UniProtKB/TrEMBL annotation, chain A:
It comes from Danxiaibacter flavus. InterPro entries: CheB_C, Sig_transdc_resp-reg_Me-estase. PROSITE patterns: CHEB. This is protein-glutamate methylesterase. Keywords: Chemotaxis, Hydrolase. It catalyses: [protein]-L-glutamate 5-O-methyl ester + H2O = L-glutamyl-[protein] + methanol + H(+). Residues 6-181 form the CheB-type methylesterase domain. CDD domains: CheB. The lineage of its organism: Bacteria, Pseudomonadati, Bacteroidota, Chitinophagia, Chitinophagales.
From TrEMBL, chain B:
It comes from Danxiaibacter flavus. Gene3D superfamilies: Vaccinia Virus protein VP39. It comes from the Bacteria. Residues 1-250 form the CheR-type methyltransferase domain. Coiled coil: none annotated. PROSITE patterns: CHER (PS50123). This is Protein-glutamate O-methyltransferase CheR.
């Protein structure tokens, strides 16, 4: 696989938090590609997430700020109650428009916007969840030449979201939660 | 579902809109604007970008509709309850010292933010000596704001926000329920003035002790943010307050040096020079 990956976007809902922790066990501090995580979560839960992830990963964890330039070495988290978009100059934009799939941030919104900027240089990963969000966006990532990964619905805590996505299109890889981190690590080693 | 237009087409369209109608969207955040234009294009089932662009340029009624659809008017009462708690605790006591209070809500959408503030003022016994100006670029949302009628389905959420913000009354005492609508008390709306105002092209129209502009600057590019913040600076009295949305700040603006944030968390600044 010879592609220059510039961003890895991970979308998750119910049951995805532990998977995210597992993924980041495999990612070293000097990993050259930034991550953007969009999670459905309630506001109370949110503040703890940065801290938890900071402890469990080797990268710097940061909540997305508007107009900030995306840089490697970071895991960016989408803030509660805003949609996150990406401008052509690789800066973040925030948006307070209608919820999509009852969600703000919505995974579809982030996937679509990231894909319009990064095209084949994007990896999209969709994890466990009880929501129909993410499938359309992931399909667009694939249509635009990006690489798509879906957590294996059979071992997802809540299979609805990955299952729903796989009904829409054929993802490039369907992986168990324990294999995704290693896969990303190798992907970069091969590039 | 195919979208066949991108940045170049959008730039051209925005320039044409500016020439024909005088509305300047050229310095709006492209990511958001693109998403809204794509949405409008699909919603109204256009077949080509040429048709879409021609319709916007030649049909003023359709253009109005387009402006309404591309502007994001989503809002809430007492959104970010801790923000309003800070307003109660740190701003209202200062406002109380003025003989007359003028507040500007720029980009107020359907007015929920203005009604929220009016409730806080009323509870502090200050509403009678206050005037709240609500402005927006979109006249349709202002019409709703004037009526003060909001969906009843929202009231449970608003009541929770209200209690979290430090409210101690029964939130339902502020409105009358009628089927699926809640009409807010006229004692609140009587102290409000709504009018269209375009932050991009219109200048300061009064002086205020408090200006709200929440979740509007995120739609503007940096230079436009800075320009609009200068309009606010020109409209704010010395020691007045500027309140932005929870993800907005003064960091791209030359006025930052004259302001001090009044709370470590909430996005409220005091004008010191
Ligand atoms: C997301 S709403 C924010 C509503 C409210 N302040 C809040 O935070 O809930 C953004 C509003 O800004 C208005 N707006 C956008 N461009 C504007 C402009 N150039 N001048 C005035 N208002 C504008 C939109 O019409 C919309 O009603």
């Amino acid at each position: 696989m010879n592609r220059d990956i510039q961003l890895i976007v991970i979308g998750g809902s119910a049951g995805s938090l532990q998977v995210i922790f597992k993924i980041f066990k495999y990612i070293p501090a000097e990993f050259p590609v930034p991550f953007l995580i969009v999670l459905h979560r309630n506001v109370n839960f949110e503040s703890a997430l940065d801290e938890l992830l900071s402890v469990k990963s080797n990268l710097k964890v940061k909540e997305v700020e508007e107009k900030e330039t995306i840089e490697s070495g970071y895991i960016y988290l989408c803030p509660a109650d805003y949609h996150v978009l990406i401008e052509k100059d690789k800066t973040f934009a925030l948006d307070y428009s209608e919820k999509i799939h009852h969600s703000r941030p919505s995974i579809d919104v982030v996937f679509k916007s990231a894909s319009a900027t990064f095209h084949e240089h994007l990896v999209g990963i969709l994890l466990s969840g009880a929501n129909a969000d993410g499938g359309d966006g992931l399909k667009i990532i694939k249509d635009n030449g990006g690489l798509t990964i879906v957590q294996d619905p059979d071992e997802s805590e809540v299979s609805y979201m990955p299952h729903h996505a796989l009904q829409k299109f054929k993802a490039d890889f369907v992986l168990e939660s324990g294999k995704i981190g290693r896969f990303i690590f190798d992907l970069n080693a091969r590039a | 579902m195919e979208i066949n237009f991108g940045d170049k087409e959008i730039d051209n369209l925005l320039n044409d809109i500016l020439d024909i109608y005088g509305y300047d969207f050229t310095e709006y955040s492209k990511a958001s604007l693109t998403r809204r234009l794509h949405r409008l294009y699909l919603m109204d089932k256009f077949k080509s970008f040429g048709d879409f662009s021609a319709r916007i340029q030649t049909d003023p009624v359709y253009f109005k509709h387009a402006v309404q659809e591309i502007s994001v008017n989503v809002t809430e009462m007492l959104r970010d309850p801790y923000f309003y708690k800070t307003v109660r605790e740190k701003i209202i006591p200062v406002l109380a010292t003025y003989p007359f209070i003028r507040i500007w809500h720029a980009g107020c959408a359907t007015g929920e933010e203005v009604y929220s503030m009016a409730i806080l003022l009323k509870e502090a016994g200050l509403l009678q000596k206050s005037l709240l100006y609500g402005t927006d670029i979109n006249p349709v949302v202002l019409e709703k704001a004037r009526k003060g009628i909001f969906p009843i389905s929202q009231m449970q959420q608003y009541s929770t926000n209200y209690l979290t913000s430090g409210g101690t009354n029964d939130f339902s005492s502020y409105y009358t329920a009628n089927y699926n609508l809640a009409k807010f008390d006229e004692s609140l709306s009587r102290r409000m003035v709504f009018s269209t105002h375009n932050l991009v092209s219109d200048s300061s129209f009064n002086s205020f002790q408090l200006i709200f502009c929440r979740n509007v600057l995120i739609y503007f590019e940096k230079d436009l943010q800075a320009k609009v913040l200068r309009v606010f600076d020109n409209s704010l009295e010395l020691f007045g307050f500027l309140a932005l949305g929870s993800k907005e700040s003064l960091r791209f603006s030359s006025i930052a040096g004259s302001y001090k944030q009044v709370d470590p968390k909430e996005k409220i600044w005091k004008k010191l020079k």
